[in-house]
Amino acid sequence: MSIPAPSPSLRWSDLLHPVVAGLISVIVNYGGTFILVFQAARVAGLSPELTASWVWSISIGVGTTGLWLSWRYKAPIITAWSTPAAAFLVTALAAASYAEAIGAYLISAAAFVVLGCRAGSTG
């Protein structure tokens, strides 16, 4: 039975590339998808506070996932919001409530996690 080698300690230089990838993720989202998010929020009649919360959560989400994935896989990985999904929200929020849209996104995310785990477990 072999003993696993101890993992090297985390150095500040190990964080440079993941942090840059996380910042690029946020900047990319500010440049494109947020225009659609603001339009969808206007169509849904969301308050400025709720719209700001939505933008904040997207920013933190893409920055955090980009940072973690880049650190985990030792390669710059950028995550972003789906522009087609944001465009879909512009029309969907005219007919569905914000709470229904959140529920649909959560169910969709759970389905993607299940599918991803199943794909990873089949050899």
Summed up:
The protein is an all-alpha fold and 123 residues long.
User: Hey, roughly how much beta strand do the residues contain?
Assistant: under 5%
Give the uncertain stretches in residue-range form.
Answer: none
> What is the CA-atom radius of gyration, in angstroms?
18 Å
Output the number of helix runs.
5
Mean pLDDT: 80
H and E string? HHHHH
Helical proportion, percent range: over 70%
Give the CA-CA distance, first to last residue: 25 Å
Shape: globular
Query: Class by helix and strand content?
Result: mainly alpha
Sheet with most strands: none
Number of DSSP strand runs: 0
Describe the protein.
With 123 residues, the chain is mainly α. It has a domain at 13-95. It is 75% helix and 0% strand. It is built from five helices and no strands. Helix 2 (33-44) runs parallel beside helix 4. The longest helix is centred in the middle third of the chain and has 26 residues, at 48-73. The chain is globular and about 50 Å long. 15% of the residues are buried. The mean pLDDT is 80.
